[in-house]
Design a protein that fits this description.
By secondary structure, the protein is of the alpha/beta class. It has a single domain (5-179), classed as Uracil-DNA glycosylase-like domain (Uracil-DNA Glycosylase, subunit E, 3-Layer(aba) Sandwich), CATH 3.40.470. It is built from seven helices and five strands. It has helices spanning 3-14, 46-51, 58-70, 95-112, 122-129, 135-138, 163-179, and strands at residues 37-41, 78-81, 116-119, 143-145, 148-150. A five-stranded mixed β-sheet has the order 2-1-3-5-4. A hairpin with a 2-residue loop joins strand 4 (143-145) and strand 5 (148-150). Helix 1 (3-14) packs antiparallel against helix 4 (95-112) and helix 3 crosses helix 7 (163-179). The longest helix has 18 residues, at 95-112. The radius of gyration is 15 Å and the shape is globular. 42% of the residues are buried. The structure holds uracil (URA).
Length: 182
């Protein structure tokens, strides 16, 4: 990460109010600073906090297997979360949390300047495409936000409950792989 961007990222991190920044539950983004694709999840869970990396639990295994299917190497993409502190009891992130962490997410995206941003699930997708709609309506399309190409898709954990979600997620990731020139 170039120094000026790293400084901006650190500056945004310093702005997070103390009550929303429990360092014991914090998980930062992981991946190369020049990645072509940035994935944005919702918030870390227990496994992520334990290992200090996003998407390393059950949802991560689904993501890994789909990435492999479409020919994207996990180590070549950047993976982060909308909210970077694990919410208590894995509850949904609140609007205060999303608002507080928003500048950090955009500092990351601008630092990496990827070819494609892929928000996973409703919370991240609504944030990145700035539309309040169900994820089933948002996915399947390509959007533009601040000059970035955005392909919202289902959260990998949604495949646990509905088989058709997996097919949709795979279809979206195939488009992402094409856009990223894989
Ligand atoms: N779910 C998310 O949204 N993010 C993670 O890092 C793990 C699971």
């Amino acid at each position: 990460m170039p120094l000026d961007i790293r400084e901006r990222f650190e500056a945004e991190l310093a702005e997070i109010p103390d009550d929303l920044f429990d360092r014991e539950r914090f998980v930062g983004g992981v991946g190369p600073a020049d990645a072509d694709v940035v994935f944005v999840g919702e918030a870390p869970g227990a496994n992520e906090v334990e290992q200090g990396e996003p998407f390393v639990g059950n949802a991560g295994r689904v993501l890994d297997s789909l990435l492999e299917d479409v020919g994207i190497e996990r180590k070549q993409v950047y993976i982060t979360n909308l909210v970077k502190v694990r919410p208590p009891e894995n509850r949904d992130p609140t609007s205060d949390e999303i608002e507080a962490w928003r500048p950090v997410l955009w500092a990351e995206i601008e630092a990496i300047d990827p070819a494609v941003v892929v928000p996973l699930g409703a919370f991240a997708s609504r944030e990145v495409v700035e539309r309040d709609a169900p994820i089933s309506d948002l996915r399947g399309e390509t959007y533009e936000r601040d000059g970035y190409v955005v392909v919202p898709t289902y959260h990998p954990a949604a495949t646990f409950y509905d088989d058709s979600v997996k097919a949709g997620l795979q279809e979206d990731l195939e488009r992402v792989a094409e856009m990223a020139g894989r």
